[in-house]
Design a protein that fits this description.
Belongs to the BchN/ChlN family. Its cofactor is [4Fe-4S] cluster. It holds the Pfam family Oxidored_nitro. By secondary structure, this protein is α/β, with parallel strands linked by helices. It folds into 3 domains: 145 residues, Rossmann fold (3-Layer(aba) Sandwich), CATH 3.40.50; 122 residues, Rossmann fold (3-Layer(aba) Sandwich), CATH 3.40.50; 107 residues, Nitrogenase molybdenum iron protein domain (Rossmann fold). Helix 11 runs parallel beside helix 17 and helix 12 packs parallel to helix 13. The structure holds iron/sulfur cluster (SF4).
Length: 427
């Protein structure tokens, strides 16, 4: 393959990182439930939280996750802090009720949240106790989606990380692809790997618990999402080996990601080219069309989803944009390093957030496009900046060749809209 080359001016892997630990403006980890519950068809996410948590899931996300958000509020309203023993009884009662009513549930996640009353409840203990009772039909796990502990994509990381220790042990030589992908995108990826002769591939999360296989010392894993730091560590603790690669966004990222796997499994360059040449050509053509409005434009990323670094790599190298600042909530060298290697030197790389200071930098930069959370987008739009909501990037299929044009299109739409509005105003 024509491997993506490090940029002539050097990459960003060793660039100084501006580390900020101030106030941050991002959704909490409960948000991950929105895409995880679609992906894991026999799972149920029981949020132990407050009315705010219920509103986040029902209103902001526009979905009804749990018909009984009262469960969380019932604990808070009916149990005082001294009565935490009652909280465990209450959890047992609600879980029993739920499982009796919904025998299709095979995996139940008890998801913690922010209120101090909830933080004090030992959900791990509850999950262990309930698992002992309901195994093997139902597996009960717990993680935290609290906004104090997690940014919005970290909810998926926490959910997957809590599954890793209970996956069965296996010695099978296999590839595990980690990160929830829309089914259609997952099928495309599996199709490409199969065409190369790589068939022992499993995914975490699987659509159903019965579709899961184990993990062990002969498992190699590739991350399909860049926000899976805890899951990465949990898999290494189980003896699995990570295949570092740029994230599969755009032609270059997808090709490099697939190539890392192909090399590991001994696929020849001829077979690799035969499988990838046609979809690569389609991706390049689609990107060229969709990036017409992006070329020569500047972009500023607020830290939000941890997708920022691979997206900046895609937009600068394949769409002709210039990155001014690339902020990420966290930077893991093992995960983000391959993308940083390819990101042309120049942008300020920042980790974490001090939102007021960063707003000042964004206002001074006045980039053609600013990528940020929903809470910042409206005020910045009012100041005349074109914005892109980071959250859309996790709800839209953007991985691999066939989605590469759509990915560029997501960024060009706000710029097109802005230029149309300007034209109308001028008429
Ligand atoms: S977990 Fe915390 S930040 Fe998230 S909705 Fe509930 S209270 Fe709000």
């Amino acid at each position: 393959m024509n491997a993506p080359l490090a940029p002539a001016n050097g990459g960003c892997r060793t660039a100084p990182v501006l580390k900020e630990r101030g106030q941050r403006e991002v959704f909490c980890g409960l948000t991950g439930i929105i895409w995880l519950h679609r992906k894991m068809q026999d799972a149920f996410f029981l949020v132990v939280g407050s009315r705010t948590c219920a509103h986040l899931l029902q209103s902001a996300a526009g979905v009804m996750i749990f018909a009984e958000p009262r469960f969380g509020t019932a604990i808070l309203e009916e149990t005082d802090l001294a009565g935490m023993a009652d909280a465990q009884v209450e959890i047992d009662r609600v879980v029993e009720q739920l499982l009796a009513r919904r025998p299709d549930i095979r995996q139940l996640f008890l998801v913690g949240s922010c209120p101090s009353e909830v933080i004090k409840i030992d959900l791990h203990k509850a999950a262990e106790r309930l698992s002992a009772k309901h195994a093997p039909h139902v597996r009960i796990l717990n993680y935290s989606g609290s906004g104090i502990e997690t940014t919005f994509t970290e909810g998926e990381d926490a959910a997957l990380a809590c599954m890793v220790p209970v996956l069965p042990e296996t010695d099978a030589r296999q590839l595990l692809v980690v990160g929830a992908l829309p089914d259609v995108v997952e099928d495309q990826m599996l199709g490409l790997l199969k065409a190369m002769g790589i068939e022992t591939v499993t995914c975490l999360p699987a659509q159903r618990i019965d579709g899961e296989t184990g993990v062990g010392p002969n498992t190699v894993f590739a991350l399909a999402q860049p926000f899976l730091g805890e899951t990465h560590a949990a898999l290494e603790r189980r003896g699995a080996r990570h295949l570092p690669a740029p994230m599969p966004f755009g032609d270059e990222g997808t090709t490099a990601w697939l190539h890392a796997i192909a090399t590991e499994f001994g696929v020849s360059e001829e077979v690799f080219a035969a499988v990838t040449d046609a979809p690569r050509a389609r991706a390049r053509k689609a990107i060229a069309q969709a990036s017409e409005h992006l070329r020569g434009k500047s972009i500023f990323f607020f830290p939000d989803s941890q997708l920022e670094i691979p997206l900046a790599r895609f937009l600068t190298r394949e769409c002709g944009m210039t990155a001014i600042e690339v902020g990420s909530p966290y930077i893991h060298d093992a995960i983000h390093g391959p993308d940083l290697d390819l990101l042309p030197a120049g942008p300020q790389i920042s980790e974490g957030q001090d939102v007021e200071k960063q707003l000042d930098r964004a206002r001074a930069a006045r980039a053609d496009l600013t990528v940020c959370g929903l809470g910042l987008a409206n005020p910045l739009e009012a100041e005349g900046l074109a914005t892109k909501w980071a959250i859309e990037l996790v709800f839209t299929p953007v991985h691999f060749y066939e989605q590469a044009g759509d990915l560029a299109g997501l960024f060009s739409r706000p710029l097109r809209r802005k230029s149309l509005l300007k034209l109308e105003a001028a008429e």
